[in-house]
Design goal:
By secondary structure, this protein is mainly beta. It is built from 3 helices and 19 strands. Strands 13, 14, 15, 16, 18 and 19 form a 6-stranded antiparallel beta sheet that branches. Strands 1-10-9-6-7 form a 5-stranded antiparallel beta sheet, with no helix packed on it.
C-alpha cells in the first residue's frame, strides 16, 4: 500500500506537457524502456519525444512515476526510471542524478544512479518487506524534481500450518545499497511462497572480482539455531560491512532450505568510500 505524500521541484525546473513524445522516453516508472535507437535520434535532434510529460532540468529530460503508479507500489517492487541528455546539456557536461532515499531520523540512500551518456535507464528497488517514507529525486546541479511517498508492507494471510512448499518464492532486501565500510545495515529475508523456509543466522559475504563472485571470510560467530520463516513473514538481521572493506561491488548471500533443496538468495550492494 502506498500513500503519495507530495511532489516538489526547484522554481527553475518547469513541468512540461509536450504534444510530441512516447517511443523514446517511455522511461516512466514501471513501464518498459524504449528502444535505444529512438532515444538516440531524439537526443541528436533535440526534439522532445512524442507524448512526453515530465520535467526538463537544464537541458535534460527526466521522468517521475505518476501518483497512480506510486499508489500501486509494494515493498520489493522495482521502479524503472531514466533520462535523456539533449545537445545543450551534453556540450555543458551536465549530468543527471537519480536518488532513492528512505527518509527518517537517519535518512538512508537506497540507490543512486548517474546519467552521463546521451540516455540511460535504471531499475531501482524498494526494500522488500520494509515499510517506510521514501523520496525519489532527479537532480541536475542545484535544480531538482522529486516525489515523496509512503510504502507500507502488508503481509499476506498465512495458512493454518507451515507446510513443506512445492514452489519456493523468497526475496532478500537491504536497508541501503550504498553503505560505507563499518556501517551496519538491515537485511531482510521475506517468504512470499506457500510453505516454510528453514534458515539460520548469518550471511555469506562475496566480492566481485572481474565478473566472478569470490567469498570473503567474515570471521564472525553466529548462534547455530534453526529458524523457520512462515509464509507471509520475514526475518530481519543486522549486517555490519567489515571495516577494512575496499570500495567496490559486493553481495550478501543468505542460505535457506525449502522443498528439500538448499537455496542461495543474494542482494548486491556497492560499498562507497567514507
Amino acid at each position: 500500500m502506498t500513500n503519495v505524500m507530495g511532489r516538489g521541484r526547484t522554481p527553475r525546473s518547469a513541468r512540461v506537457r509536450h504534444p510530441l513524445l512516447a517511443g523514446v522516453l517511455g522511461l516512466v516508472a514501471l513501464v518498459a524502456v524504449p528502444a535505444a535507437g529512438a532515444s538516440t535520434a531524439v537526443a541528436k535532434t533535440g526534439t522532445a519525444p512524442v507524448n512526453y510529460e515530465g520535467e526538463f532540468l537544464k537541458g535534460i529530460a527526466v521522468t517521475l512515476p505518476t501518483d497512480s503508479k506510486l499508489r500501486t507500489l509494494k515493498p520489493g517492487d522495482v521502479l524503472k526510471v531514466g533520462a535523456v541528455r539533449f545537445d545543450a546539456a551534453v556540450r555543458k557536461h551536465r549530468v543527471a542524478v537519480v536518488t532513492l532515499t528512505r527518509l527518517g531520523a537517519r535518512p538512508a540512500v537506497i540507490a543512486r544512479r548517474t546519467v552521463n551518456t546521451r540516455s540511460k535507464s535504471f531499475s531501482l528497488q524498494i526494500p522488500a518487506t520494509r515499510s517506510g517514507h521514501y523520496r525519489l529525486r532527479w537532480s541536475v546541479g542545484r535544480s531538482f524534481t522529486q516525489v515523496t511517498f509512503d510504502v507500507t508492507f502488508v503481509a499476506p494471510v498465512a495458512p493454518g500450518r507451515c507446510a513443506e512448499p512445492l514452489d519456493v518464492s523468497a526475496e532478500l532486501g537491504v536497508d541501503s545499497s550504498e553503505p560505507e565500510a563499518g556501517e551496519t545495515i538491515g537485511v531482510t529475508l521475506a517468504n512470499s511462497g506457500p510453505g516454510c523456509l528453514q534458515t539460520g543466522y548469518g550471511f555469506a559475504w562475496q566480492v566481485d572480482r572481474n565478473g566472478v563472485w569470490v567469498d570473503v571470510p567474515l570471521n564472525t560467530v553466529v548462534p547455530a539455531i534453526a529458524l523457520f520463516v512462515q509464509p507471509g513473514q520475514s526475518l530481519t538481521e543486522n549486517f555490519t560491512v567489515p571495516k577494512n572493506t575496499a570500495p567496490g561491488m559486493y553481495r550478501i548471500v543468505k542460505h535457506f532450505t525449502a522443498a528439500g533443496h538448499v537455496v542461495d538468495i543474494d542482494d548486491e550492494i556497492t560499498v562507497v568510500k567514507a
